[in-house]
Amino acid sequence: MRRCLLLGLFFSIYLASLGGQDLISSQFLNRYTNAQLFSTFGIPARSGVELYKLQYTTLDAEGLLDTASGLVVVPMTTGPFPLLCHQHGTIDHRDRVPSAELDHFGELYLGSEGFLVSSADFIGCGDSRGYHPYLHAATEASAAIDLLRAVRTFTTQQGIVLDNRLFVTGYSQGGHAAMAAFQQLEQDFSDEFQVTAAVLMSGPYDVTGTMRRLILSETAYDFPGYLGHVAKGYKQVDNSLYNELTDIFKPRYAAVIDRFEHRSDFGLFAMNDTLVAMLTAEFGASIGRFMVQDSVVTAFERADTNNRLYAALEDNNLFNWIPKAPTRLYYCEADEQVPFTNATTTDSIMNALGAQDVASLSLGRTLDHFGCAIPAYLNASTFFKEFRTTSTQTQIEEQKIRIYPNPTTDYLIINAPDLEVVNELTSYKIFDRLGRLLDAGTLKDKQINTQALESGVYLLTLTQQNQIATVKFIK
Known about the structure:
Blueprint: H1 3-17, E1 23-32, H2 34-41, E2 49-59, E3 65-75, E4 81-87, H3 98-101, H4 105-112, E5 116-120, H5 137-158, E6 162-171, H6 173-188, E7 197-201, H7 207-216, H8 225-237, H9 251-259, H10 268-283, H11 294-301, H12 308-315, E8 327-331, H13 341-353, E9 358-362, H14 369-384, E10 394-396, E11 402-404, E12 411-415, E13 427-431, E14 437-442, E15 447-449, E16 457-464, E17 467-474
Parallel strand pairs: 4-5, 4-6, 6-7, 7-8, 8-9, 10-17
Antiparallel strand pairs: 1-2, 2-3, 3-5, 11-12, 12-15, 13-14, 13-16, 16-17
């Protein structure tokens, strides 16, 4: 078994043994009122937020104990709060992390919406040592999960009350990292954490499919530096992956990638711009395959798992599993960095494997990678707010709710024996697949009128005092 797989197993074993003592320190950083969030960042904030930096123990890329850092965003409202595991996107250099910059839209917006946000800086970034293993699922997951443990300790120390909900989300690289954490949480730590729902946004989940084809195509791609970042990062996990960068890249390009150490003096974007300029000068366009050694191109085109780098990339695909919690994959169709087929392919495979509630959803036909971010976060918050179960509510299992006819045309009839009285005392809400609230009211004669709904799949929630039920239906 390859070392990266063994390391992933070691991460899982180690993580299972860790507890709340992983919190090293907490530091208050800043406070924004809702008015400041709007005037400074354009965030339509429901509340202000307080920001804290946490230091905690986790494993580095070599599997050794390290001190890592992360950001916690606490809403300035009354709890209890749902806990939200957020994973940040690609950063230019190792110091541009959430706990240092304090201006990342995702964390601030989600905190202002009432979520207590836990956002890891990642291994090899912030306070942790070494080079960041970019798009490496095991370390992305371990950094996030260990921070969740530290956050639980922090909130106990601060007298901050959490409810029983845990959400997972992230954008771009954060989409890949969030999917990695989500999979680990469900498959290895379900006795410790129960994920309520997950939204993965514009992430490269299909590394050896969609992303490989993009990098190896003969059409222009203006982000060839990502492949160099991945190759250097994976070598931090497995030093025997290759001997020299020239084993992977042609010498003139390898020299540029070798200069890059994920630091401010020559950051990722500077390295990428240099590669784009070199490729354009030599070939007329930024065609990434031309900077890769011909033997590597051939191995990648053949999907040759005997090639160590290809095999390592394959280990970090994140589509071949079955989520239990409701899952949404948001994307935009004009994304020039992470093609939207990452989401649609992942959706198709997960559903083919038997997933019960996974859907990929387009947020726009003309939005690019940057433009997709804000609508993605807005919709993620809306979707998460469907799940309003708290420690004072009991979730009724879906199979105990009978709704008919389903599919429906004009109305639904509700039969829910575990609800004390299915009548005017029961309130309902109907959401579409984007998480938008379309209808709400109280039941009359155990019926809901659906004539105004368009054809599609919907989520129905029924609430009565301390009980809540959630079920899907089709119009």
